[in-house]
Structure formats: C-alpha cells, structure tokens
Amino acid sequence: MQGPLIVSLDVADRADLFELIDKFPKDDKLTVKIGMELFYGEGPQIVRDILDRGYDIFLDLKLHDIPNTVKSGMRQIGRLGVTFVTVHALGGSEMIKAAKQGLIEGSEEAGVQTPKLLAVTELTSITEEVLKNEQNSRLDMVDQVVALAKLAKRSNADGVITSPLEVKALREQVGDDFWYVTPGIRPSGYPKDDQSRTATPAEAAQFGSTALVVGRPIIKADDPVAAYHTMSEEWNNAKR
Fold it and tell me: Is 6:32 a contact under the CB 8 Å cutoff?
C-alpha cells in the first residue's frame, strides 16, 4: 500500500494556517498534519475547520499517559473525524490498547470512521548516542525501533512513526500489513535542521515507507505549492 505525502502545518495560529493553505488549489486533495503548537493554540475547532475544507488530517499529539487517561483523550479525538492520530509506543502495550479502544468508542458514537492509530517509536531527532546515554537503551537504534513496532502491532496499533532509515528492517521483521509513516523527509541538499535521521522522498520510497510527513521544506519554501508538487511527484514516481 502507498499512502499520502502529508504536509505538516507547523504554524502558530489560524491566520498563519489559512494564509498557507489558501495558496493551494481547491482540487489539491491534501492530507495535512496538525501538531501541538496549532492544536494547543486553537483547540479542536481548527480541526473541524480544516475538515470542512475537504482535507484529511493527521492529528499528531503523541499521547503518553496512563491507559485510562489516554483512552478518555482518544475517545474525544475519535469523535473529530480525523484520519491518523499518534501515541508514544514507549507508553506500553496497555496504553496503546486503551488508545485504540478510545478511538473506536469515540468514532462509533460520532458516526465517523475510526482513525488509524500510529505509535511513535523513536523521534527522528534521537541519535544513537542519546538512545544509549540518555534513554539507557541496551539496543541499537534499529533493534529498538523494531522492538517498539512489534509491541505496537501486538497492541492493536495500525502502524508506527519511524525514520525512513529503519523501514527496511521493519518490513522484514514486523511485516508489510502495517503503516510505516516517516517524517524527516528532505529534498536532496536540504539542511537536516533538528532531524538526525533523514531521507529524500525517493529514498523513503525505496526503503518501503508507507506515507511521508514533510514540514519545513514545503511550508518555508518561497513557493509552497510548487515545493509540495515536486516532492509529491518524486514520492509517487519513485521505484519501490
């Protein structure tokens, strides 16, 4: 399966958001990511406003708390009608299961499709050094990500968030019936910024990513629409 190139709308407020998305033609069927900054500033109404534009939404709030709290939060999120949501895999199996159950309950109550639950493995800003010396992991990065992905799959998640560099190992060890959504996507020659594990859209396709998440290379471009179409074409036309 191949999913979308998701545009990460990492902007501060409603004005910045609509200034950006109003540049895109209405027939561009976008999937967009709403993260913490925009959601915490504008609340759930911003999600409803974007859904009214006909866009699919990846609501990336990375819930990580005790199972009952996460379940209650996901029940509310499930009512919104978004396509993807996230938790941290490090929250453990019971938390992930509770998150999925909350999404199912909320979406059924609202009569909308249940969002796909994606578990964050290791953030793309985490290096091997941080993994070893700060997280005190006994595993190297690939083995750690694979272990967390296996945990997520056993716990009823629909996929994981991971850097593109681990996807080949994930497909081999976790399977093809799972979403591998990869941030850290950069055009060739683009600075890594605060990401440490990155790839181009074509490289991510070759590694086996299911969907991509792209922020600054699109929204900070002089022409965001052109940047989106260039990267989207590279993603869709790459050899797999």
Answer: yes
- Average pLDDT (108-116) is 98
Q: Between the CA of residue 233 and those of 4, 48, 229, what are the distances in Å?
A: 11, 28, 6
- Angle (CA) 121 236 9, round 5°: 55
Q: Which of 23, 26, 29, 62 is catalytic?
A: 62
Predicted local distance difference test score (pLDDT) of residue 125 = 85
Burial of 11 per CB tally in 10 Å (0-12, 13-18, 19+):
buried
Identify the structural domains of the chain with CATH numbers, from first to last.
Answer: 5-237 (3.20.20.70)
Question: Which stretch of 61-65, 192-196, 236-240 has the lowest confidence by average pLDDT?
Answer: 192-196
Residue 162, both tokens: 């991971």
Taking the C-alpha atoms of residue 163 and residue 25, their distance in angstroms, rounded to an integer, is: 30
Active site residue 26: no
Provide the sign of the torsion angle of the four alpha carbons 214, 217, 221, 226, taken in this order: negative
Residue 23 contacts residue 32 (beta carbons within 8 Å): no
What are the angstrom distances between the C-alpha of 124 and each of 12, 146, 197? Answer: 22, 14, 5
CA 225, CA 81: separation in Å to the nearest integer? Answer: 25
Supply the pLDDT for residue 220.
Answer: 93
**Is residue 194 pLDDT above 80, yes or no?**
no
Give me the chain's average pLDDT, please: 93
Structure tokens at 138: 């006994």
Evaluate if residue 1 carries a pLDDT over 80: no
